[in-house]
Amino acid sequence: MSSEQPAGSARARSLSGVVIAGTGSAVPGRRVTNADLEKVMDTSDEWIVQRTGIRERHIHDRDAGESSASLATEAAGRALESAGLAGDQVDLLVCATMTPDMPTPSVSCIVADRIGAGPIPAFDLNAACSGFVYAMNTVHALMLGGRYKTALVIGVDCITQHCDFSTSGRATSVLFGDAGGACVLRASDDASKGLLAESMHSDGAGAQHLYIPSRAGDFYDQDDSDAQKINRVVMHGPGIFKFAVSTFPRLIEQTLDRAGLSADAVDHYICHQSNARILAAARERFGLAESKMHVNIDRFGNTVAASVPLILDHQTRAGRVQPGQKVMFLAFGAGLTWASSLWQL
Ligand code: UT7
């Protein structure tokens, strides 16, 4: 079930001449603090901050026109602008999401139309919180074939539509926020840049830890079966916590090993934001400086497929992520899924 590859193979096809040419992101207008949540459910700022590190998040308003498609379009527009490109120069578009506005059309088709990309290949990919990292690896592999020169890779989710913002849903709803992020990948003659190593994994045997049932028969555990929970995130927090704390370091180790690099040789670790404690545990395990492993969960919560590109965009715009550096993208999530992507910028 894993894209296992012999240790040397990633190295053999590294530095393929693909560059991250631009980044963009977007969040909904409505900012919801822990104090706001205290007004609608039995929770406290102290509980949320201590257990997760989250202080606020942004929540979309579908009636005001905010949705996965709108956030994805906004993020994509900013990424194109920062790359100095127009929509009609994009020849491949992949959007990672588990919350498209509708089952069909895909978010990708809507964005491709809105940016004026023309009849290019455009499709959505669902790997939950690992989606954006899966999408980067997938798009990179497609670009290696030489047919695609300019690709938009997007991660977007409006997960709060599946959250119950009452006391009975407090164990999950306080964790999540909505956002979109994007990057432009471009084929380049500069073969000193590109993907150094990647990995993608899944384990459906762990699906029961995190899922969204769409009917009564979908509940993995009959103890969870409750009509109020249909269409809501069902999560066994401690199970996911354990999975994440053990998987994260292994994923970092495996990716470094495939690239033949030490942990210190990587300039930035851009990780899915699900819990500040999980990130801190991984950082301490490798003895990394705080400045190398970025955290923004305090301001945005867990934004599912958007969390990795959101940080990438913020850190790039802040001038911290720069050409010449090495950046490792890491994520894990429902499925279960986990993935990494290590780039020489
Ligand atoms: O993208 C992947 C998505 N998910 C994750 O990565 C989540 C991973 N898991 C976690 O981060 C943690 O398991 C949580 C933060 C979700 C929960 O932390 P925990 O320390 O595992 O708490 P718990 O679920 O064991 O609950 C402890 C207590 C319970 O009360 P009792 O039974 O001890 O009296 C809960 O009812 O905290 C209570 N509780 C809350 N109290 C105030 C649960 N949610 C809340 C809340 N406010 N929002």
Task: Assess the beta-strand content as a share of residues.
Answer: 15-25%
Strand order of the largest sheet: 1-7-6-4-5
| Total separate domains | 2
Number of helices: 11
CATH homologous superfamily heading of the largest domain: Thiolase/Chalcone synthase
Which residue ranges are poorly predicted, with pLDDT under 50 across at least 5 consecutive positions? Answer: 1-14
CATH architecture assignment of the largest domain? 3-Layer(aba) Sandwich
Distance between the termini: 29 Å
Radius of gyration: 19 Å
The largest sheet is: 5 strands, mixed
CATH fold-level name of the largest domain = Peroxisomal Thiolase, Chain A, domain 1
CATH class of the largest domain: Alpha Beta
SS elements, strand count: 13
Name the hetero compounds present: oxa(dethia)-CoA
Q: Write down the overall mean pLDDT.
A: 93
